[in-house]
Design a protein that fits this description.
Elements lengths: L1 H24 L2 E2 H8 L3 H13 L3 E6 L9 E6 L5 E7 L3 E8 L4 E8 L5 H19 L6 E8 L2 E2 L5 E4 L8 E2 H4 L1 H4 L3 E5 H14 L8 E6 L3 E7 L7 E3 L24 H4 L1 H8 L14 H12 L3 H25 L3 E5 L6 H13 L2 H6 L4 E3 L3 H25 L1 H5 L2
Parallel strand pairs: 4-7, 7-11, 12-15, 15-16
Antiparallel strand pairs: 1-3, 2-3, 4-5, 5-6, 8-9, 9-10, 12-13, 13-14
Helix pairs in contact: 1-3, 1-14, 2-3, 7-14, 9-10, 9-11, 10-11, 11-12
Length: 407
């Protein structure tokens, strides 16, 4: 029995490896899959036959460029094997995307986020999910996973939004809240964790595969996602509560209710408060329109003293926070994203000042700091990458055990 269990586990792991290669590279031949995975030709033949029999992948033919000889047989995911819905929850909107099993975006729409109670918020998401399947004319049973993301503090093991800028400490357990229609299909991740996942995927396809990195999102909130490469393990993706790390004891009031958080000095509301010399204990606004921050930025670029100081103070808070990150995790590349990057020219001197004050930077030098402009695309890429790694694992276990038992 133990031998059979071990054999089945290896078979599932190898099948997941094949699916991950197809997802990363696109349509591949038998030989290309073997080269990319390091698995033998016989093993690839058995796995692809099993996956094709289970309607998870399909074959197609590609004629040789010369038009002569036998066409190549290529394998790819069956697009109608199932569907993924991604739900990106922002401070003022909720975006729904429908993706087929091959990773193709089929539909997308955005709705205004409802104001008011937790119940209204959950009801809006439930209705949005129903609208997604109705627009595509598919059944709920064809949806393999619903992947949600939000700013704030997310449980690492359950789809529970523990704290968010809009709902505060009024937690939402999406598995319970979305009920029998959707609850058993739901996963939830911090938005900036998904950015780190996407950057790690891009890096794996580029010149620095396997390097650890951190993503910092600048905006109303300050988010952090970390992708660390550990020996003999898959990348570890996490989202420490960076924006609410302590920056100055007893300092300015944060939206979370504490005093002195990084966000209370670096979030949009913090820049507004500093620029207009508002009392540090003033209750922060939940949302500051970008147009208002743009006005402060324009004043700063003209040299207005308090506006310059507001952005520099925000940069110092970020730099100090990054230095603590490096002290805990060692040097890594830092990617800065989010709507706040439009002000990075005003933040940069403060960020470097905050970093330069610390022991770890004085010893090892400045980390690589890179601005990345396409945060929305990164969040979506992270959704797709993380969700399909879960879907592939589960679909192999559910759809192929009978074939394995007969081997």
């Amino acid at each position: 029995m133990l031998a059979k269990s071990s054999t089945e586990l290896v078979r599932q792991q190898n099948s997941a490896l094949v699916l991950s290669v197809l997802r990363r590279e696109g349509r591949l031949s038998h030989t290309q899959i073997s080269e990319a995975t390091g698995l033998s030709s016989a093993t690839i033949s058995a796995i692809t036959a099993d996956l094709e029999r289970s309607a998870i992948i399909e074959k197609s033919e590609q004629q040789a460029p010369t038009g002569r000889g036998r066409p190549r047989v290529l394998f790819s995911q069956r697009r109608d094997c199932g569907y993924l819905i991604t739900v990106i929850i922002s401070s003022d909107s909720i975006q729904y995307s429908l993706v087929d099993y091959a990773g193709t975006l089929l539909d997308r729409f955005t709705e205004t986020r409802p104001e008011g109670s937790r119940e209204a918020f959950v009801a809006a998401i439930s209705a949005g999910l129903d609208r997604t399947v109705q627009r595509a004319d598919i059944g709920r049973n064809q949806v393999l996973l619903v992947s949600l993301s939000s700013k704030g503090l997310v449980s690492p093991s359950e789809p529970v939004l523990v704290w968010s800028p809009m709902l505060g400490s009024e937690a939402v357990d999406f598995r319970v809240a979305l009920g029998e229609n959707w609850g058993d299909k739901v996963v939830l991740n911090n938005e900036t964790l998904l950015v780190a996942k996407a950057l790690q995927q891009r890096q794996a396809r580029g010149a620095q595969p396997g390097a650890s990195l951190a993503a910092i999102s600048l905006g109303h909130s300050i988010g952090l996602g970390i992708a660390r490469t550990l020996p003999e393990k898959d990348a570890e993706i996490s989202a420490p509560n960076f924006g609410h790390m302590l920056h100055i004891p007893g300092g300015a009031l944060c939206r979370c209710g504490a005093r002195g958080c990084i966000e209370a000095y670096a979030g949009f509301y913090a820049v507004l408060r500093s620029a207009f010399e508002v009392r540090a204990d003033t209750v922060p606004a939940k949302i500051v329109p970008l147009a208002e921050v743009d006005k402060i930025a324009a004043l700063a670029r003209q040299g207005q003293r308090m506006a310059v100081l507001a952005f520099r103070q925000a940069g110092v808070a970020l730099g100090n926070g990054i230095s603590r990150l490096l002290s805990l995790y060692d040097h890594m590349s830092i990617f800065i994203t989010g709507p706040g990057i439009r002000y990075y020219d005003l933040l940069q001197a403060g960020v470097e000042e905050g970093l330069a004050q610390t022991h770890v930077v004085r010893l090892s030098g400045m980390p690589r700091l890179e601005v990345v402009v396409d945060e929305a695309a990164l969040v979506f890429e992270g959704h797709v990458g993380l969700a399909f790694s879960l879907i592939d694992r589960d679909i192999i276990a559910l759809r192929t055990p009978l074939q394995a038992a007969g081997e």
